[in-house]
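Example 3.2
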Amino acid sequence: MTESGSSSSEDIPSSGTRDQTEADDQTKRVSSEILDLIPVKGEVSKPGPRVTPCGDKDTDKFFQLLHTWTLTPEAKDRPKLAAAMKSLKKSLPEHGWEIKSFARDSSRNRNLALVADHDKKKFSVNIVHFAKDDPAKLTVRVISGCYQVPEGDEVDHY
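Structure, written as tokens:
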């Protein structure tokens, strides 16, 4: 799974028909479960999930949810972020996630990025360690599969 706009509808797994509020709550739960697996604590940005299109499907009937947040530890704990990434590589599979990649990205800073899918829950996560940023941080993007709203409902684009 990838963030909307970069894949076709056929590449996005179906998460079935679901009320948008229920899907939003599920996305928050999955995101919170990932936060609980990060062995470093710090300030977490507060924005909630937002609606994104499901490839080229009807945007009034189909949607994905993208929940992006950042964990910024206190200065004394920032060196622990590299170890936290290795810990996630080990702990995510213990919780049903399949690691798809764990490598440096192609940016100038060569940030360490982890991508994992949870086939049963129909979610994907992309976690990037921005070690050279000031301050250093982890950015986490959780994206759902493609939901369809119940008959008679329309997607609330927020």
